[in-house]
Amino acid sequence: MAEGVRRRRKLKPVEEAIQFSLEQKDKNGLEGRFISHLKGRGVFSCTDFEKGDFLLEYRGDLISKEECERRQRIYHDALKVFMFEFRYNGKLLCVDAARDDGSLGRLVNDDHINPNSRMKTIRVDGKPHLCLFATRSICPGEEITYDYGDSEWPWRCTTLSVG
């Protein structure tokens, strides 16, 4: 290596998540695409990701349980799916991503059978941030998904027809 030239150290996944959370930006290598009228939009990889890599943050308003309940009473059903409730330091909190701010995290779809990422809570400047990390290698063109958890989401219901 030439004298005076340094290679930039690759950030660890959590360090990278903190950096993008502070900048309130999405990283390169991901894009939002329309899938169908039933599913709506989703997030797709444009590059290779390795297991453990930081993918993106689920950004929105960090609100209390009480404010979450208030907003759910006034929101249309189509907006309620953007309310991400979670427990942090013994308190029930919510990230409300109903307002489309152009960030990709709010577009990541549910897959409770074979997700390729997992939501983790990280601490940035004393506040919780919800970030997705790859649970396996992800190839270009692959949709980014995670398991929304133990809820009775309408798209998970299957109907058997009797012939």
From TrEMBL:
PROSITE patterns recorded: SET
GO BP term, pick one: regulation of DNA damage response, signal transduction by p53 class mediator
GO molecular function: histone H4K20 methyltransferase activity
SMART domains: SET (SM00317)
Domain spans labelled SET: 28-149
InterPro entries assigned: KMT5A, SET_dom, SET_dom_sf
A GO CC term attached to the entry: nucleus
Pfam families to which the protein is assigned, alphabetical: SET (PF00856)
Domain of life where this protein originates: Eukaryota
Protein name stated in the entry: Histone-lysine N-methyltransferase set-1-like
Lineage start: Eukaryota, Metazoa, Chordata, Craniata, Vertebrata
